[in-house]
Specification:
This protein has an eight-stranded antiparallel beta sheet with strand order 19-16-18-17-21-22-20-23. A five-stranded antiparallel beta sheet has the order 7-8-14-10-11. A four-stranded mixed beta sheet has the order 1-4-6-5, covered by helices on one side. Helix 10 packs antiparallel against helix 11. It is of the alpha+beta class. It has 14 helices and 23 strands. The longest helix has 25 residues. Helix content is about 35%, strand content about 25%.
């Protein structure tokens, strides 16, 4: 289905484009037809998700494919489920729960499409349980010549020109849309489970001294440090035999909607008008943090309500460098006199075997810096980025950064292999855009 072109704008409002044509395919066959027609007219092609990337990874001036009609669970089997690429993660979670199934891990934003989340490397947190791309066991792709292929973790066939199925699978899982248009994904799933979620404040200094212990002792560790204070909010999520003890509707609204969104948004607005008040605002927020716990269905614990608009930069560093990265970031903020309202979020993941996963080949820790959307602070992002780059950091593909192919080729061992696959599969750069020209060359 074609429709008149209109401007695409991302969730944060910092990226936009006006494509020459917009198409909303409802099947892989319609995607393939759209790609072939684009090739005939010399147009470049990108499929967008829900716009939760802060970079220009989804933008195009050519044919924009929208995924609203490419949704739904397509097949299920013993320990796996195949779903269309445009299915929102929230919808997949609900459908899996209805069938008594669950993903082992995920990020905290569930508005994303499955393809968008996987292609940009959405990871969540887990010391031993990896992110979305590592739960994918097969991918359906439409290549630049319009051919549809399925590649899987166990595949041994040759796709073409010496490209093996396993190579394309490992490259295309976090493929940035550069190798083809993903039309469906098959995930490994498991029986539904409960998570015991414990939130409690801790001092940053205490966390830095016990990082290895608290990471090893928890299946999913996430913590938020409030700049200008020594206070963090830790979130420890571990599997639990039950029974469930979910939040009441009132407590959910109070904590997750009112305090973490309505009140926090108001405080960000005050900080925007009165930057000098931010350290005091953060100190007040730190003093108001309290311990809480619940036992609930896994996806309900993983998911977070995010309504305050922000800009974000996130880097993955080798896990052994996390304490140094945080200490240097804390010192830099104080030295430069920046006023930072948003907490800095820290997560961890085990090694990944997806070639362009930020966790490829190493235990990783993620440091995510946010700023209130109406008050961007490029100096803050630039200063923290310098620290992360010095520590061998890899930027999240969907979050703001300034790295290019020259740098990225030094921190991804399979970067050159990815480029060789791209040269073979898309020599005319049908799936390119300005962002990919920067990060892939």
């Amino acid at each position: 289905m074609s429709r008149p072109p209109a401007a695409f704008r991302n969730w944060a409002g910092n990226q936009s484009a006006v494509p020459a044509e917009v198409h909303t395919p409802s099947s892989a066959e319609e995607v393939a037809l759209a790609v072939r027609r684009a090739a005939e007219t010399g147009r470049r092609v990108r499929m967008v998700g829900t716009g939760h990337s802060f970079t220009g990874v989804a933008l195009t001036d050519g044919l924009l494919l929208r995924p609203e009609r490419l949704t739904g669970v397509l097949e299920t089997g013993d320990g796996w489920v195949r779903a269309a690429a445009g299915t929102p993660l929230s919808a997949l979670n609900e459908e899996l729960a209805r069938r008594g199934l669950a993903l082992a891990n995920m990020g905290d934003i569930t508005a994303q499409t499955l393809a968008g989340a996987v292609q940009t490397g959405t990871h969540g947190t887990g010391g031993r349980i990896a992110g979305l791309a590592d739960q994918v066991i097969a991918l359906d792709l439409v290549l630049a010549d319009g051919e549809s292929v399925t590649v899987s973790r166990d595949g041994t066939a040759e796709i073409r020109d010496g490209i093996t199925e396993r190579d394309l699978f490992d490259a295309a899982r976090v493929g940035l849309g550069a190798l083809g248009v993903v039309t469906a994904l098959t995930f490994a799933v498991e029986p539904s489970f409960l998570l015991h979620s414990v939130r409690r404040p801790m001092r940053l200094s205490e966390i830095l001294d016990t990082l290895d212990t608290i990471t090893a002792d928890n299946e999913h560790l996430d913590f938020f440090w409030l700049p200008h204070t020594d206070t963090c909010l830790t979130k420890r999520n571990n599997r639990h035999p039950g029974p469930a003890r979910p939040q009441s509707a009132l407590r959910h609204w109070l904590d997750d909607v009112f305090l973490e969104n309505t009140v926090f948004g108001a405080l960000c607005g005050v900080g925007a008008r009165l930057p000098a008040a931010i350290p005091g605002i953060n100190a007040l927020s730190a003093s108001a943090l309290s311990a809480s716990e619940r036992v609930d269905t896994s996806y309900k614990v993983f998911a977070t309500v995010r309504r305050v608009r922000f800009l974000e930069m996130e880097y993955a560093v080798p896990r052994e460098h996390l304490a140094q990265a945080l200490r240097e970031t804390r010192d830099l903020i104080e030295r430069r006199g920046w006023r930072i309202t948003f907490p800095i979020e820290v997560r961890v993941t085990p090694p990944s075997d997806a070639w362009l996963s930020t966790a490829y080949g190493r235990d990783s820790a993620y440091v995510a810096c946010h700023v209130y959307r109406p008050t961007p602070n490029p100096d803050y992002f630039e200063g923290v980025e310098e620290i992360m780059v010095r520590l061998g950091g890899r930027p999240h593909w969907g979050k703001l950064h300034t790295r290019d192919a020259a740098y990225l080729s030094t921190v991804y061992p399979r970067f050159a292999d990815f480029l060789r696959l791209r040269d073979l599969l898309d020599p005319g750069r049908m799936f390119a855009n300005d962002y990919l020209d920067t990060v892939l060359g």
